[in-house]
Specification:
Largest sheet: 4 strands, antiparallel
Number of strands: 6
Structural class: alpha+beta
Helix content: 55-70%
Number of domains: 3
Radius of gyration: 37 Å
Shape: rod-shaped
Oligomer: single chain
Length: about 325
């Protein structure tokens, strides 16, 4: 796949994800596509975040490395209870964080929990042990409302949109750099063409007037043949067949009559196949590379013409 095609594929996938985010609340169906996007653009940070959100912030997830902290947006307020369902009351403002818990569940499990109409309960041995060691209190579980998870899902969605926005900027900047690089490359290529072509076609080409740059170049080619041969009374195919005739040439390119004939038809073709159609019909030309190739063909003919001999009879 070409670089341009790859970028179009990335932008297309990005737009599909945004569209799905607008019409669907089911993040578990959207995150896998976003994960594919992260791999396509080789964004390791985004890829890791996707893995954590999809599979959860658990030790079994390879993406959960030592430096990873469960995000604040996964905090739910709740209450610790002992085995008799007596609540743990914390009056010290410095310890209010005990009445919060950061959910580690993957996105699919979060969506499932959010649909529950009951009070949800979690038993996290590490936190139960922490409370025992620091507060000297035995607690059995942490309970919270399922409605709290809706805020977590909204936060994940917002984070995803923000991360995708950064991706778009990167892709667009990269595409702009590619276009500038391509434009520079083509400009350098034009600078290697015949000087007459540079004088008539460079600005037209730079401004995107591809059809006109071709037409003006081939009009120039015909005018140059007229000037060198002195046959301004002729034009088009008649001009080319007369001045490049293999039998009695006015402009002699080769001593080999077959080669002379070949060049005659090349000049005829430049008139019949390129100049005339673009002069008589509004043929749209959008491809800068194809335009450069037509200009290059004319450049070859002009350089051959420069080296050709004018026969005086």
């Amino acid at each position: 796949m070409s670089i341009k095609a790859a970028k179009k594929s990335i932008i297309r996938l990005y737009n599909e994800i945004l569209q799905n985010l607008r019409i669907s609340k089911n993040l578990s169906k959207i995150l896998p596509s976003a994960f594919i996007l992260s791999k396509k653009i080789e964004d390791k940070e985004l890829e890791k975040w996707m893995q954590l959100e999809m599979s959860g912030y658990f030790n079994s997830n390879p993406a959960l490395t030592e430096e990873v902290i469960v995000p604040e947006y996964r905090i739910v307020p709740g209450q610790y209870y002992d085995i008799y369902r007596r609540p743990l009351i914390i009056s010290d403002p410095k310890l209010r964080f005990v009445n919060e818990y950061r959910l580690r569940h993957g996105i699919s499990e979060l969506e499932k929990l959010s649909r529950s109409s009951k009070l949800l309960t979690i038993q996290d041995p590490s936190f139960l042990k922490l409370i025992k060691e620091n507060l000297n209190v035995e607690v059995h579980s942490f309970s919270f409302s399922s409605t709290s998870i809706i805020g977590i899902l909204d936060a994940i969605k917002t984070n995803l949109i923000n991360k995708l926005s950064k991706i778009t900027q990167i892709v667009e900047e990269s595409a702009q750099l590619e276009n500038e690089k391509e434009h520079t490359t083509i400009h350098l290529a034009i600078s290697n063409l015949h000087p007459l072509i540079q004088s008539v076609a460079s600005k037209l080409f730079a401004d995107g007037h591809y059809r006109q740059s071709i037409l003006d170049t081939y009009i120039l080619l015909v005018e140059t043949v007229k000037t060198k041969s002195g046959r301004r009374d002729l034009d088009g195919v008649n001009l080319m067949q007369t001045v490049f005739s293999p039998n009695n040439p006015i402009i002699k390119i080769s001593d080999d009559s077959d080669e002379q004939l070949g060049y005659m038809w090349m000049f005829c073709g430049a008139v019949m196949g390129i100049r005339n159609p673009k002069a008589h019909r509004l043929i749209e030309q959008r491809d800068p590379q194809r335009t450069l190739e037509w200009l290059s063909y004319a450049s070859v003919l002009l350089k051959v013409l420069d080296e050709a001999e004018v026969i005086k009879y």
